[in-house]
Amino acid sequence: MKIEIRAAALVGTVCAACLATAHAAGDDASPHALAGNLSFATNYVARGLTQTDYGPAMQGTLDYTHASGFYAGVFGSNVSWLADAWEPAAPNVSSNVYGGVVADVISKSLEIDLYGGWRKTFLEDFTFDVGAITYLFPGRYVLDTATYPDLSNPRTSEVYTGLSWRWITAKVWYAVSDAVFMVGDARGTYYANLSASVPLGDTGVTLYGGVGTWEWRGNARFVRNLGIDNGNSVYTFQDVKIGASKEFLGFNFGVFWTATNAPATAAVGTNAEGKVAVWANRFGRNIGESSLWASVSKSF
User: Who contacts 140 (Cβ-Cβ below 8 Å, separation ≥6)?
Assistant: First the structure.
């Protein structure tokens, strides 16, 4: 699960960067740089949550950077979490799931993230990073806002800031859009992460470890209507990720383990027998379960 930057402006910026890079080919002093990567993962995990119901994903990134520290980029991946959470088993046919809540027709399988910011290294070992990101999920949405007031298109915007020292990074993403991944009245929700990527001498192996917390804010009406008292905080959870990666034959291979304490369901009101899905999908599976997965990527 996976800035308010205007898509047209960003695409224009990236195209201009491509032209500038091509024009400056062979000029070592050029302040422009363009890079990217393609990757395959056996599971797409974001903030501890699978975005593909524990299935594989093909992903790509394209980044433009300037010597001044400015950067902009785009990330794309297949996903399935929206359909997994809301779409009925048969197209255009509603079905009752999780306490009689009516699932809605949703057609989407793509995530596109647009981001940009400014990054600068100082005192040799410190790097400061600030920017914004918008997560786009193009597709068709027929949302039952009568049952779920405040339910919204999943488009989400965040601003972020981070500070790194050598191989340790602390970073916070803060939601500035009113809706956060379909949950309405969630502005101010934030995700904080502390991670380390430690190279093991000359082995070419890098060890990774990270912990994070996703703190939800707001008081969505559909959460209140279900008799849950603590508003969007019902979605709050912590996650952990550990793993290792290594360059081999021009590719980067990685193996990772992720886990969360994300609740699958929450009790409806005071009725312990009545449950509503929180981080459980329409198959009844918690998307924050522990998972061991692998990835391979190629940079260019």
Answer: 105, 106, 107, 108
Half-sphere exposure of residue 137: CA atoms within 13 angstroms, side-chain side: 24
CA dihedral 48, 52, 56, 61 (to 10 degrees): -70
Q: Is 109 exposed, middle or buried (0-12, 13-18, 19+ CB in 10 A)?
A: middle
Which ranges of 162-225 would DSSP assign to H, the alpha helix? 221-225
- Taking only the tens place, the pLDDT of each residue in 36-53 is 999 999 999 999 999 999
Check if the beta carbon of residue 113 is closer than 8 Å to that of residue 137. Answer: no
pTM (two decimals): 0.85
Ramachandran angles phi, psi of 235, nearest 5°: -90, -10
Indicate if the pLDDT at residue 100 is higher than 70.
no
Q: Look up residue 259 and give its amino acid.
A: A
Q: Can you give the pLDDT at residue 270?
A: 63
Query: How far is Cα 172 from Cα 160, in angstroms, rounded to an integer?
Result: 5
CB 185 within 8 A of CB 222: no
